Structures are given as structure tokens and as C-alpha cells.
């Protein structure tokens, strides 16, 4: 096999985007339902807070004029006449214009006040004017924001109730393979659990798409064709899982070719090298290889890349850590290799071990701590080298 | 005010944990519902995959004995007699023991096979034995894992359907303040929107708790007392929001003292300094100050810390970036200061601007890019200094 003919990951993505474009639409959702959506338009505050004014401290509101020539005798003052109580955030009558912190005031038993001798009074002090906390027209959240709780709080505080968002792209996931059985059944000889549907549903949700997971399709040309037609009619983007390599039952590549334009078959990335990228009826159709790590990787870079472009957001960042390799890490120079990593830590130094499939005594690769992707052209790494590991959630 | 008497954040947490302990319980949830829960026990695979064997390549399965003395004449071979098709993951009959990749095989028109002259045959090659992909008893996911899609896929692949998880702690959130009105109404003079309930609901869910958000309580002693009693009867942990400082209406601190043990009133962290920490009827009750940034900070460090301890998981990591300060950043040396940061980037260098409340022309602080916490004892920072900013999701 001539690996130099394989598309690099970014080339495969560019090729898709030359032949297919996301078609984001705006829809309105209730603020309560808006978490995880991407904001379609800048949102601005509809009113100012304070509406008129508010105290910036717990204290008493007074007239500055009473203090213009020094601290007066306040022992006979009466609440509601010379002063009012004004705690943080409280509005108070227009008659008063200045707030003295409660810590500097003693309220006397017979009414009246005693102020600390050294209290300094400035006109308007500790008074928050109209709009000083939030002003009408202030930018609450920017177009392109993936809405989290804090953004919803900002929108609510400025009076936004109906939120214009990018409709989530509907991403269909078709698991294929005669050997597959649904989770919850015990595999017999030759069978395997379809765990990729569970993975895809969760990952698609997390990346901001609406997953539509279809039933398992056997390796039969007619069933695959029908399943793809159904998904094309219901989804914006379709993932066919497995059947991407060259075996007898690998109808899927032929299917993509027969129904539309197969842009690319094979990427310079393992696991998942025989990925197929096609456009059919104006929709992106990606054939992701079946093994679970290949499915993870394909979802993580290709599908996440497509979904982020659809939504108009950058790829999310993951926390990273520098870690020392505990063993040699073989990697072909002509392929990027995704490696699942187990991390350990001693005295503030992190150590990384790759997670080879089938190695006895280790936990399941999908439960690893993080991932590392080897660079194209670099090849294998040696024990003791420092690699950058992305923590997985 | 003597700031040296304030508890540091870790001291406030330690004090709580000396007087109160999480009481995690295990419950079982369906795999479909398990995302976001914390696994209560190690989970192991119930069976092996392959159950017997599987082909590791797309190819044909043959008997090694036919190749023990070199490559035989295969032109008259018949499928089902001398060989069978065996694609990746396929089981095949016990009569065969070795797989030849399909790329090295040509299937002749009249049946029969032509093998590449240089093909190397080794006994058992490209055959995945029983348990080579997953073995009975393999650790699928570890106790203490916050379950994401990839863990659910691992559990499913090994036959786990009912998942033992830590019950999510029920965290009650009581918004208090006579000035508060619910989101969706327009504030009149002296009113403000309760946006903290929206913030808390989202943040509590994200940290792995079950939020119970109560209606707004006016600043009336009897109503506050009733609301707290209700929350104590329904929740594991209770947050009273606002009413934590020393104003006339700040019943809440007094309330905590009267109903239980007030462990701490005031922490060396702003915003949110007048936080109250109490234990009442064996439950943790935290009084978080009302301003939105104080609420965010209090939820982010104190409540997240408590919830993570309840669940037995480490604090989650955030991506970080080194950024150059574009302006002086005042911070008192005797308090940790949480600063909301706007980041910009030029030629790979990040620049940070703090997000002061009320500064005109800036977006809402809650929509910032990240946060920075100044160190105790360090005080203000100068323009040009490099700070470490945590990206917010």
C-alpha cells in the first residue's frame, strides 16, 4: 500500500469543505432550554440595572448637604427623616444621595446615630447610579458563544428570554456489521456488542449536534442502501460506521460511490485509516471504520471538525500535560497515530504509558486518562521523551 | 476590618470537613442514564471478545498445514473447502487457523486463488484469539470515574447494563432578596433579576450534583427560616444565596447561627468575602454572597469542592493559557481575588484584560473568556506581567 497517497487529516477536511458547505439556520429557543446551543446573534441588555440607583454597601443613605461643613450632631436623627437604611443593592428615596457604611455607624438605643469620628464623607459615595451594574444596550453575550450557565445568567440579567441560536445539526449514525448485537445481550461466537452507537450518541451531544442513532444494519447491500436513504432524508450529516475497508462485506465504500461523490477513501491517520468521505444529495456522509478506537478518533477529529464548522465555533480546548514516556512508542512516520494514554504522577512529574489493545492487566483503552497524537513525519518515540497529552474529560 | 482573621479558602473547607462529612450512597442506574454519574465500584467485563476467534484483517482463512512446505498450487481451490472469506472481526470455522490479507490474494474468474509470489505465511497470522480484544474480567472502568460516553461504550462492550453509581448529592439553592424578581420580567425601580438561580442550576448539574432551585425568598426572617427548613428536609447540601453581609436585612447569618453551628463567616477571597459556612441538622449549609460574580466564585470553589468530595473525584482540570497583562491588575495582598479575563491573541501570544464591573463598552463579565485568581500575599500585578488564565468552557 502506498501511504503517500493518503490524504492528511486537514486535506480530507478541506476536500469535504470544497464540495459541501454547512447550512446553519437560526431558530429561537427558550432561555431555559438554551444551554449547549450556539448563539446566532449578539445579545444586548434591554434595560439598565440599577433602574435608578442602588446602595453599593450595607449602610445608611444620607443627604450630603448635611455633611458639607463637617460631621453634624446625628444623635437626634430619625430614620426616614435624616437618613434611611440602604443595604447593598437597595434603592432609596431621591431625597438621599450618599451612603455611609454600616460599620462606621452605631444606631443608638434611643434612636439617633453615632458616627465614627474619622469617617470620611464624599458626595455620592457608595451609590451605584443607573446602569452601573448593567446598562441598556450592553453586550451580554456574543454571537458564536456556546451557551453555558454563566451566559444564560448574563442573558437573563439583561432581559433576554427567547434566544436566537444555531439549530443543532442532525447527525445520523448508522452502525453496520452482521457480527453486531445491541448492548445488553450476551455475544455468542462471532458476535460483538455495538458499543459505538453509545459512544457516538454521547460524543455528538457533547460537541453540540443532535444525534440520531439508527438500528444496526447487517452487511447486506439492500439494507445498507435503504438505511442510508432514510438517514439522508432525516439528517444534515450522516455517519456510516464500519465496512470501510476492502473486505467482501465492505459494501459501504461502493455504496457511497454509487450514490454520490466519494471524495476520499483513506486518511493518513490510525486507527481509522480507511475512512471514507463523500457528498450525497448535498449532504456530508462519512464512513468511519468500526473498531472502537477508530470510531472515537474519527468522531473526535472529523465529525467534531464538521460540527464545529456548522456551528461556527472553534474546536474546544482540552487541558494538556507534559508527560515522560515510560516505554518506547512505535508510530509510523507516514501516519498520524492516536494513542490512548494512561498517566501516573510522582512528585509533580507525569509519566505516560500507551494503551495497546489486548495487553493483559490493563484497563479498557476507552477508559484511558488522555490521548496523544504522533506527528506526521516524526515516527516512533523513545522511552524518556516528553510528550504532550490531552486530558480526556 | 481585620482581614487577617478571615479564613483562607482551604481553611474554610477544612473547617467544614472537620464538622461535616459527605455521605455518599450507591444506587444503580441503567447504562443509558449513567452519563455524568460517578462510578461506585470497579466494573469488569462479563465475557471475552472474540468469543472464540476473529480475523484481524480483511482476507481469507486457510489451514497452515497446506503451507508448511511452501505455497501450494491454489488455482483449483474452492471456497468452503480449502479456504473461507474472513473479514476483519469475522469468526470462521475451526478447520482454518491462519488469515492471508485480501490484498495478497486474487480470486480467479473460474474460482480458485492466485496468491502473491512473495506472500509470507506464518501459522496463526492475523487471527485474533479468544479475548484478544476484550477478556473476561478485564477492568472496563474504575471506581471514581465520572462517566462519559467513552466509559459507557467500554461498559457496554463488556456486558455491564446496570451501573452502580454514587447518588448525586441534592443541592438546594435558595435565592434571597426583596429586590429580586424572576427572569422574564422587567425590573422596576429597586428591582433586579434573579439570574443566580439559572447560574446555579447549570453549574450544579455540570459539577455532578442534582440541583433543587427554590423560589425567591424575600428578606423576611420567618420566610427565610421556613425556606431553609424545607431545603434541609429535601437536600444533602443547602446554598442560601445573598444576605451574607452585615446589613439590616441580612438575616441569613443570624439564621445559620440560630439553627446550627456557624463555622465561619468571611473568607479571604473576593468577590464573595462574607461567605457563611455552617452545619445544621448534619447538613452543610453555605451562605454565598449575592452579586453574580461572587455567586459564580462561591459555586466554583466552595460548592464544587464539596460536591467533588461527596462524589470522591478530583477537581476537574481546565485548559490554561499564559497571557500578558494589558493593564495593571490591582489585587489586595490579604485576599485572593478572582478576576474575569478577556483574552486576545496576536502571533501566538495571548493578552489579558481584567473585566471590571460597569466599565463601559465591555461585554458582560459572565461572558468572559477565562478567570485568574491572584495569590494570597502577592497583591496587585503590573501591566506586562504574565499570568496563568483558566479558560472557561
TrEMBL record, chains A, B:
Residue ranges occupied by any MoaB/Mog domain in the UniProt entry: 172-310
Membrane-crossing segments per the record: none
Q: In which pathway does it act?
A: Cofactor biosynthesis; molybdopterin biosynthesis
Would you name any one GO CC term? Answer: cytosol
Q: Which cofactor does it need?
A: Mg(2+)
Gene3D superfamilies of this UniProt entry?
Answer: MoaB/Mog-like domain, MoeA, C-terminal, domain IV, Molybdopterin biosynthesis moea protein, domain 2, Molybdopterin biosynthesis moea protein, domain 3
Gene Ontology BP annotations: Mo-molybdopterin cofactor biosynthetic process
Keyword line: Magnesium, Metal-binding, Molybdenum, Molybdenum cofactor biosynthesis, Transferase
SUPFAM superfamilies, per this entry? MoeA N-terminal region -like (SSF63882), Molybdenum cofactor biosynthesis proteins (SSF53218)
Q: Does the keyword Metal-binding apply?
A: yes
Major enzyme class = transferase
Recall the GO molecular function terms of this protein's record: metal ion binding; molybdopterin molybdotransferase activity
* Superkingdom, taxonomy of origin: Bacteria
Q: Which reactions appear under catalytic activity for this entry?
A: adenylyl-molybdopterin + molybdate = Mo-molybdopterin + AMP + H(+)
Entry EC no(s): 2.10.1.1
Q: What family is this?
A: Belongs to the MoeA family.
Which named protein is this?
A: Molybdopterin molybdenumtransferase
Q: Origin organism of this chain?
A: Zhenpiania hominis
